[in-house]
């Protein structure tokens, strides 16, 4: 947990029911510049592949942002430009590592990185790691989901699939964009920042968090309006454990509460 004058941030990393941990998560706060970041990477490829890919993503993120945020008075536009730079460097690192392993070696990772400058929030998202905004009692995913889940859910809305069929669809978690060392088909990186208001809360995670439904997540946040970030993160983790889903994936959770103004 990071509790500073600027932000209250809590991180959780849990293997779920998996034998290996392929998620990686990190946060850092820079009080001198009233800035901070959280980054989540969900690796794919198994032991010595997925976990390496997610670590490469975190390393590239730190390399791109830390020096800039430690500097005196960097321009906001310069800092925002570091997000796509981090993605490009991560992709190059994954490509280099994969090439060194020889033909047939495959690994990849999602990237969800949030840069907070005061109450202005920039993000970059590649893959299906969700970024939620909880505002005025309403939970909303604000980043794009680069998987087939939105298309499958659209079939529910059109009446061609039931909700149960959509939840169990074998292609639901198939990614449409990911960092794998090749061309990245989709990048969600808005030019304009999100302005946090009042008691807004940001919630980041790997897709393992979504073994809880959005209404279940929203209910937990509703029950903890004044709680510390660490208590909210723990409540979410305990709710996942209570489900005891035998297929529970690795889970990363980050709860971010900006300081009140």
Can you tell me the CATH class? Alpha Beta
Q: Order of helices and strands, N to C?
A: EEEEHHEEEEEHHEEHHE
Major β-sheet annotation: 6 strands, antiparallel
Number of β-strand runs? 12
Query: Under the CATH scheme, which architecture would be assigned?
Result: 4-Layer Sandwich
Shape: globular
CATH topology: Phosphatase 2c, domain 1
Count of helical stretches: 6
Proportion of residues in β-strands? 25-35%
CATH-wise, what's the superfamily?
Answer: PPM-type phosphatase domain
Based on secondary structure, the structural category is alpha+beta
Q: Detail the poorly predicted runs.
A: none
Helix fraction?
A: 25-40%
Task: Tell me the strand order in the biggest sheet.
Answer: 1-2-12-11-8-9
Question: What is the count of structural domains?
Answer: 1
Terminal Cα span: 21 Å
Mean pLDDT: 92
């Amino acid at each position: 947990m990071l509790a500073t004058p600027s932000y209250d941030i809590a991180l959780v990393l849990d293997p779920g029911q998996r034998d290996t941990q392929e998620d990686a998560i990190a946060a850092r706060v820079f009080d001198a510049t009233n800035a901070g970041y959280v980054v989540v990477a969900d690796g794919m490829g198994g032991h010595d592949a997925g976990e390496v890919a997610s670590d490469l993503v975190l390393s590239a993120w730190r390399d791109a942002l830390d020096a800039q945020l430690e500097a005196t008075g960097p321009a906001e536009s310069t800092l925002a430009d570091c997000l796509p730079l981090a993605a490009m460097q991560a992709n190059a690192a994954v490509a280099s590592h994969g090439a060194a392993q020889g033909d047939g070696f495959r690994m990849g990772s999602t990237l969800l990185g949030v840069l907070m400058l005061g109450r202005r929030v920039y993000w970059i998202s590649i893959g299906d790691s969700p970024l939620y905004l909880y505002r005025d009692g309403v939970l909303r995913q604000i980043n794009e989901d680069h998987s087939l889940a939105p298309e499958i859910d659209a079939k529910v809305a059109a009446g061609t699939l039931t909700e149960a069929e959509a939840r169990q669809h074998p292609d639901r978690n198939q990614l449409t964009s990911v960092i794998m060392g090749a061309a990245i088909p989709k990048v969600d990186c808005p030019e304009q920042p999100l302005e946090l208001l009042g008691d807004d809360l940001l919630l980041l995670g790997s897709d393992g968090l979504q073994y809880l439904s959005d209404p279940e997540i929203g209910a937990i946040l509703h029950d903890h309006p004044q709680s510390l970030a660490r208590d909210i993160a723990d409540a979410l983790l305990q709710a996942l454990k209570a489900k005891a889903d035998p297929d529970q994936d690795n889970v990363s959770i980050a709860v971010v509460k900006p300081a009140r103004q």
